[in-house]
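User: Is it possible to get a 3D structure for a protein together with its bound compound? The compound here is coenzyme A. I've pasted both below.
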Amino acid sequence: MTTSAKPTYRDDFSSPEDRVEVYKLLRDVFDVDVSPLQELELWDPTYRAFSYLDADGSCVANVATFTLVLIVNGQAVKAMGIQSVATRPAWRGRGLSHDLLRRALLWCDRNTQLTFLMTSIPGFYEPMGFRTIPQFSYVGSKAHRCENVR
Ligand SMILES: CC(C)(COP(=O)(O)OP(=O)(O)OC[C@H]1O[C@@H](n2cnc3c(N)ncnc32)[C@H](O)[C@@H]1OP(=O)(O)O)[C@@H](O)C(=O)NCCC(=O)NCCS
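Assistant: Yes, that's possible. Here is the predicted structure of the complex:
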C-alpha cells in the first residue's frame, strides 16, 4: 500500500504521553513495546522526537535524539545520540527519514559537540555525514569476593 498525501512535520511533543503515536510506529516497525517505560516513568527526559504524521495523526516516520556525556580522550563531552529511526513501509523511499535526520542533526549541531548512533545499516547514514568507527569491548578478570569488608 502507498499513499500520495503529504505528511505533517512535528517536533513539539510536550510529554511522553503526547508521543503515543511515535510508540505505535516503533512497535509496528521494530516489534518493541516501549509503553512499560511510560508506566514506570523511565523515559529519558532528553528524548526529543522529530516526526511526520499522516492526516489521521498516525506517526509515519520518526527520528529521535537523546543527550548523554561521553568520555573522549579522557575529557567529558556532551554528546547526542540518534535513535528510533523508522518509516512505515507504505511511506518509505520518499526521503522522509533523511529529511527528519537533517532536522535532528541541526538540533544536535546547535546543542552538542558530538553526535553518534549505532546501526546495522551504516550505508543509510553515511550520506548524512556519519562515518563508521570500530567498536571495542573490555573484559576484566573474575571479581574476587572481599571477605573482610563490612
Ligand atoms: C531505514 C528506513 C528508516 C529508511 O526510511 P525511508 O524514509 O524510506 O528513507 P529515505 O526515503 O529517507 O531514504 C533516503 C536514502 O537512503 C537510502 N536507503 C534507504 N534504506 C536504506 C538501507 N537500509 N541501507 C542503505 N540505504 C538505504 C534510500 O535508497 C535513499 O537513497 P537516495 O537518497 O540515494 O535515494 C526504513 O526503511 C525503516 O524504517 N527500516 C526499518 C527500521 C530500521 O532499520 N531503522 C534504522 C535502524 S538504525
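The chain has one domain: 8-128. Residues 11 and 50 are 5 Å apart (CA to CA).
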